[in-house]
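re: ur msg from earlier - yeah i can do the adenosine monophosphate complex, just paste it... oh wait u already did. ok heres what im feeding in:
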Amino acid sequence: MWLLEELKARKDSNHLAMIYRGKKITYRELWNESEKAAYWITQNSKTKNPVLIYGNKDIEILIVIVAALKTGRAYVPVDITFPVGRLQKIASITEAEILFNFSHIEIPEVMCERDIHIVDTEAFSGLLKNDCRQEIPENLWIGGGDNCYILFTTGSTGEPKGVQINKKNIINFVDWFSKYTELKKGMVALNQVSYSFDVSVIQLYIFLAKGITLFNIDKQMICDFGELFSALRDSEIAVWVSTPAFIEMCSAYDSFNNQMLPHLEKIILAGEVLTKKLVNTLWSRFEGVEIINGYGPTEGTVLLSCCTINQEMMQDKENELPIGTVLDDGIFWLESKGQKISEEKEKGELLISSKSISKGYFMNPEATKKNFFDFEGNNAYRTGDLVYRIGNLLYYCGRTDFQIKLNGYRIELDDISENINKIDFVNNNVVLPVYRDGRIVYIAAFIVLSKDLGLSVPRISILIRKKLAEWIPSYMVPKKIVILDVFPLNTNGKIDRNYLRETYL
Ligand code: AMP
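and the outut:
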């Protein structure tokens, strides 16, 4: 199943493809408007370099995504949680010629100097008004080995890494995972996950391709539960897709139940640990609802394993919930200290090969070489995830490195640390996640300054956080900042992280 072919088959359909804040777009409009946008792209770029899209959930983003695919160009979705500084970096790595800015955030002059076309919402609606009857020939469409999208994730060097996903990767994922997503005609699915997080690929490449309606929820709505719940009440959602963190946030309110979402049949959760407690809460609110736990890094195209949660898993006293069985063509093994593990229940790092695995990070051979390798003619990936196996089921038990998940967001603690060290009055720093009830609730940074600023600690903290907010996504900016004269050292002469944790957090 391939999105563009399925959309073409529906190009005369008046069925709704997407609803967002009262605005609607039909499959027919989506086809026609993406043709116009695609034509504009072909006329305004000399290269096939990726097209950047800065925004959150506006319908225009969907039109540009389809348009870029029609012109054979990859799109790079950059969410509004990314500051302009990081967008700038992504623009320079990708050498993008076109930036669609649906963020309502002003792009500074310095970015314009890069000879980049910036198209904002108003300019975009202007170009859609053009009566262009030019059809985009199918031979221009994205081909099998071409990148469809590049997602920039956090990198331990302080620079974002662009995961390249091509058409073959997506088709492999879609053909496997669509078996878990039987959808009936006329269904509505939640479209809340930001496009810069690849779980949104489920909505775009499976749900849209199957002709169902996506119901968008944006960042602003999430900040106001009154608004969010009123939107959900009107939504008629039958399929929910999100991180466990988001649905858990909603479940904190008793009114989040089957009266609010009477059509809900299926909940797909992915991106971080799913707990039994959350499943119990969801089953008590939505009786009989099917819950799927999906696991996978962006590098493996959305998901590499999944399972439907059942009673047996819930009643298993010895194990947490499994992350499921690996995808159809996946060949996986576990390694510990460089040795393959064959015993059940023995923990090891998950290595996996499949047609879903990316060819690597965009223009970054060094990082690619570290994590990707070839296995029997397919790409393979060293996940950095610690898992164990019982039968065919995998169980997640943490990371081998300093990567964490906070509210579903993937964060390399070193990415934050490197950026703090870029501040001219910082000497060194240590960044630590703060746990409550076994869950990361925020990030703290311990900082030694290189000079006396003559300012109070709260003022210094504000300065640091402001500086960081220019370079890294808002969810990565540490909530707590502790200024120290010197770092405490442990008996090995290393910074004593345990002491910092026990004393200050
Ligand atoms: P991302 O690339 O943002 O999708 O993050 C991928 C990482 O999130 C994985 O390598 C895991 O560490 C974690 N992750 C994803 N899905 C799950 C899951 N269902 N359970 C536990 N951890 C998960």
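cool cool. The mean pLDDT is 95. ping me if u need the other ligands too
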